[in-house]
Amino acid sequence: MKVLRRVGVLSVAKILGVVYGCIGFIVGAFVAMISVLGGFAGLLSEHGRAAGVAGMFLGVGAVIILPLFYACLGLILGLLVGSIYNAAARVFGGIEIEIE
After folding, report:
1. Which residues have a Cβ under 8 Å from the Cβ of 60 and sit 6 or more positions away?
2. Mean pLDDT (whole number) for 27-31
3. φ, ψ for residue 85, nearest 5 deg
4. Which helix (H) or strand (E) is 86 found in, with range?
5. pLDDT per residue over 57-95, tens digit each?
6. For the CA atoms of the chain, what is the radius of gyration?
7. What's the whole-number mean pLDDT along residues 48-54?
8. d(CA 31, CA 16)
9. Which of 3, 21, 44, 78 has its CA 20 to 30 A from that of 51?
10. Which pLDDT value is given to residue 1?
11. Which of 76, 41, 86 lies closest to 59, judged by CA?
């Protein structure tokens, strides 16, 4: 049985940044689909044409903005979680893992 006593903080941060970026892309795709559908509904109404066009552009922008935001958030959380794990492992001894 091996004990994981320390993790590379930057390594954890990079991995969480990539994982959260992928999650942000998925969330952004759903936001974009909903926003584009709402934009089309706005275009069909008489009073909401400008809002419909704006909604479609904001929806498409979500595919770009949300992955970047989530990736930055994952990077920051990775730095924080890696540091907290290292401090906790120093006190409590780490996680026991079995590798074959």
Report:
1. 32, 35, 36
2. 91
3. -60, -45
4. helix 49-92
5. 777 788 889 999 999 999 999 999 999 999 999 999 999
6. 21
7. 64
8. 22
9. 21
10. 86
11. 41
Q: How confident is the model at residue 53 (pLDDT cuts 50, 70, 90)?
A: low
Terminal-to-terminal C-alpha distance of the chain? 10
Please give the angle made by the CA atoms of 18, 75 and 83, to the nearest 5 degrees.
Answer: 125
* Three-state DSSP class for residue 2: strand
Distance CA 49, CA 34 (A): 17
Q: What is the pTM of this model?
A: 0.79
E strand map for the chain: 2-4, 95-97
Rounded distance between C-alpha atoms, residue 42 and residue 38, angstroms: 6
What does the alpha-carbon distance between residue 59 and residue 51 come to, in Å, rounded to a whole number? 12
Burial class (CB in 10 A: 0-12, 13-18, 19+), 2: exposed
